[in-house]
Amino acid sequence: MWVRAARAMRALRRAALLLPLVLTALALLLLPRPQALAPAPRSPSPQAPQRLDIHTENAIMATDYASAHEDESAHLPWFLKGGELRPRHHDPEAKLFPEDSPGDDRVVNQLMYTLPKDENVPIKKILLANGFGAWGVSGGRTEFVRNKCPVDRCSLTADPRDAATADAILYKDHHTPFNVKRSPKQIWILYYLECPYHTASLRPSSVDVFNWTSTYRRDSDIVAPYEHWVYYDPLITEKDLDRNFAANKTKKVAWFVSNCHARNRRLQYARRLSKYIQVDIYGACGAHHCPRNDPNCLEMLDKDYKFYLAFENSNCRDYVTEKFFVNGLQHNVLPIVMGARASEYAALAPHNSYIHVEEFASPEELASYLRRIDEDDNLYNSYFKWKGTGEFINTYFFCRVCAMVHANERRQRSAHYRNVQTWWREGACTRSEWRTEGQDSRDTRDNG
Ligand SMILES: *[C@@H]1O[C@H](CO)[C@@H](O)[C@H](O)[C@H]1NC(C)=O
Ligand SMILES: *[C@@H]1O[C@H](CO)[C@@H](O)[C@H](O)[C@H]1NC(C)=O
């Protein structure tokens, strides 16, 4: 692979204009992922309908980029807009599983994995225990072929009669075993969309049966983040701005919220914050109203407000949802975040794109920093320089499931969670701030 890569490099050197992009693409392909290539959020096609909207919005940014860099986009990996670079060779050393690359979500590695060519690989059968509807997909090979998965030798079924012969069974949120003998080669996967507070406990007999997990957590086997950011070039995390994001904004902090009793006491935090800076709370817990489906509500974030409270309803490890990615990052507003640890946001968000509440000792201190940003357009704009340096990608969940089932067999890897409930719940969430849990949040100050 290295030899071929070198040859390819020589050829491309001639096209000097393309080189930076080619290097990026090769880096994506060949190098262990640098820290800067922040991994993360979800795009499991699991919830396809919502996802589609998100990606349409992303397309705006991607299209701007594509028009400016038409020639280069063909050398971006296939999962980026306009990207055509696909994995050409099987890499037996690919880092796909959690133990291959601890701390890394491996989403890009999984998307760039492929099987050896000219090998007649048998189709793997994947049984969706909760039916097709739960995933918004159809049966057979459609999902893999339509998405041009690099590994597409899989077939989806929802027929319980396939339980004995399926290569893998995917359980969503619950586990009701099929009444057939299990082959030791069959892979059982547990998928959770929500955080531990909002997922039901498994029966004791079900805690030690799963081989893999698939959740938003980055130590899951198949990470299914809410959104996943990828830089075009991991070395370029900022761009000069051609506009002033503070222009015409007259209001300070907005928050859209409907659940007033979240475990992490976010409402109390917001109310304390509002003593020191204007916080407009929209919805059931506040004095402001804007109908949920009215697009003008989110538009206010682009036009009127400087800051948006992207507060999750629970403080759980790696738990960062659309509140941050869509309401926040995909509008021209600076998100203030509460949910996962500051270090976890740093690993999954674009560089310098938000402010974490735990960077400040108190709501009062946060407010005084926000007032400072409010008066300094340069400082405010420094939080928007990531825009245009990458994309939130579709992470092609089922492509990755298929790749992993094949990879597992090639490696003859065997693994299972002794107690998947312990893995999922123990130490995963806190009802207070992370720093009072004895977690070190000091090393996260670099974000702001
Ligand atoms: C601010 O308002 C002016 C006047 O209405 C308009 O021309 C300009 O485009 C606005 N700027 C932004 C960034 O929205
Ligand atoms: C899956 O887990 C079971 C135990 O729950 C184990 O017996 C089996 O060997 C594992 N299979 C693979 C392919 O890892």
Automatic annotation (TrEMBL):
<keyword id="KW-0325">Glycoprotein</keyword>
<keyword id="KW-0812">Transmembrane</keyword>
<feature type="domain" description="Fucosyltransferase N-terminal">
    <location>
        <begin position="143"/>
        <end position="226"/>
    </location>
</feature>
<feature type="signal peptide">
    <location>
        <begin position="1"/>
        <end position="27"/>
    </location>
</feature>
<dbReference type="GO" id="GO:0008417">
    <property type="term" value="F:fucosyltransferase activity"/>
</dbReference>
<keyword id="KW-0472">Membrane</keyword>
<keyword id="KW-0735">Signal-anchor</keyword>
<keyword id="KW-0328">Glycosyltransferase</keyword>
<comment type="similarity">
    <text>Belongs to the glycosyltransferase 10 family.</text>
</comment>
<comment type="pathway">
    <text>Protein modification; protein glycosylation.</text>
</comment>
<keyword id="KW-0808">Transferase</keyword>
<dbReference type="GO" id="GO:0032580">
    <property type="term" value="C:Golgi cisterna membrane"/>
</dbReference>
<dbReference type="InterPro" id="IPR055270">
    <property type="entry name" value="Glyco_tran_10_C"/>
</dbReference>
<keyword id="KW-0333">Golgi apparatus</keyword>
<dbReference type="InterPro" id="IPR038577">
    <property type="entry name" value="GT10-like_C_sf"/>
</dbReference>
<dbReference type="Pfam" id="PF00852">
    <property type="entry name" value="Glyco_transf_10"/>
</dbReference>
<protein>
    <recommendedName>
        <fullName>Fucosyltransferase</fullName>
        <ecNumber>2.4.1.-</ecNumber>
    </recommendedName>
</protein>
<keyword id="KW-1133">Transmembrane helix</keyword>
<dbReference type="InterPro" id="IPR031481">
    <property type="entry name" value="Glyco_tran_10_N"/>
</dbReference>
<feature type="domain" description="Fucosyltransferase C-terminal">
    <location>
        <begin position="247"/>
        <end position="423"/>
    </location>
</feature>
<keyword id="KW-0732">Signal</keyword>
<dbReference type="InterPro" id="IPR001503">
    <property type="entry name" value="Glyco_trans_10"/>
</dbReference>
<dbReference type="Pfam" id="PF17039">
    <property type="entry name" value="Glyco_tran_10_N"/>
</dbReference>
